[in-house]
Specification:
The protein is α/β, with parallel strands linked by helices and about 300 residues long. It has a single domain (about 5-305), classed as TIM Barrel. The chain is built from ten helices and eight strands. It has helices at about 15-30, 50-60, 85-95, 115-130, 160-165, 180-195, 205-210, 220-225, 265-270, 290-305, and strands spanning about 5-10, 40, 65-70, 100-105, 135-140, 175-180, 230-235, 280. Strands 1-2-3-4-5-6-7-8 form an eight-stranded parallel beta barrel, surrounded by five helices. β3, α3 and β4 form a beta-alpha-beta unit. The protein is globular and about 55 Å long.
Length: about 300
């Protein structure tokens, strides 16, 4: 089965956009990608006020399709603090471009309680009814960055059912699974299960969560989603057996093979359900302008699928 692969680029860099278009077109010509290529554009708050942002999107929109990714997890852009006003601004901006979808993190500050997650969903529902843009809600993992309000929301597989029920009648809201974030969440979950000491970073992993499984794996996040619309693929170190050292819990955004996520099982499962959504390769590049790591990732995944 051929999958719909995509690459990431920053909306403010023509060099990155042109590099991704070139690499995706090459993969398409090789028969690796069967559909029109797509780029997921990283969009930051300051990009909304730059004329070059809209110019870059419009200049290349005849060559490639675009999806926007707005992380929305910095202190000043917490969706719950401004009641979705900034999200509304983003969607209004995207309406004036040829960007078809938006990916944002499910995020509600320091403690994503049932109350705050419901408020988050209320805002998403309100905005999805107001705008036609597709909105994909992405799972998060560990936050080790001082600029973020940590710990981040983990969005466990056993929470998906409520998500799908809440948005059952909303056509333009879907789920995005990030394998690297899923690995970080799995590591933190497994750390506690193996007897690791709890501190403030584990606020969003409750005793009820720990009772759900003996061990958690990124594959669980993929297989538990009844309806997948968008997936971020990146490798990460995964620790599933024995006691885990605190220093080893994080490290997502790696090229395939630089971690140990079971991509063979993930790709086999996606093939079994005839997954038709996007697989966005999201690796932290050694060279910010050239995406050779992303290209290699796609080629390795293609080899894995052929061997399965």
């Amino acid at each position: 089965m051929k999958f719909n692969y995509a690459m990431k680029a920053w909306v403010g860099s023509k060099h990155q956009i042109e590099d991704r278009i070139h690499r995706l077109e090459q993969l398409h010509d090789k028969g690796v990608i069967s559909t029109e290529p797509l780029i997921e554009l990283h969009l930051f708050p300051e990009d909304l006020v730059r004329d070059s942002t809209k110019d870059n999107i419009q200049e290349y929109s005849n060559d490639i399709r675009f999806v926007a990714h707005f992380p929305q997890m910095e202190k000043h852009y917490d969706i719950l603090l401004d009641n979705g006003q900034y999200l509304d601004r983003i969607l209004e901006f995207l309406k004036k471009t040829d960007v078809e979808s938006l990916v944002i993190h499910r995020y509600g500050g320091r403690e994503m309680t049932t109350k705050s997650s419901t408020k988050f969903y209320e805002i998403i529902k309100r905005e999805s009814l107001k705008h036609s843009t597709n909105i994909y809600i992405e799972n998060l993992g560990f936050a080790g960055n001082a600029d973020l309000i940590s710990p981040l929301d983990h969005f466990f597989p056993w929470e998906y059912q409520f998500f799908f029920e809440y948005f059952e009648d909303i056509k333009n809201v879907g789920l995005c699974i990030d394998t690297g974030h899923a690995a970080e969440t799995s590591n933190m979950f497994n750390y506690l299960k193996s007897g690791g000491e709890r501190d403030d970073c584990f606020t969003n992993i409750g005793s009820d969560d720990l009772g759900k499984k003996e061990r958690l794996d990124p594959v669980d996040f993929i297989k538990s989603a009844a309806k997948l619309g968008h997936i971020h693929l990146n490798d990460a170190p995964l620790y599933t057996f024995g006691k885990i050292e605190w220093a080893h819990l994080t490290g997502e955004g790696r090229n395939l093979g630089d971690g140990n996520i079971d991509f063979r099982s993930i790709m086999s499962f996606l093939s079994s359900i005839n997954y038709e959504g996007w697989l966005v390769i999201e690796t932290y590049l050694k060279n910010n302008e050239k995406a050779i790591e992303m290209e290699q990732f796609i080629e390795r995944l293609t080899d894995i699928c052929k061997q399965s």
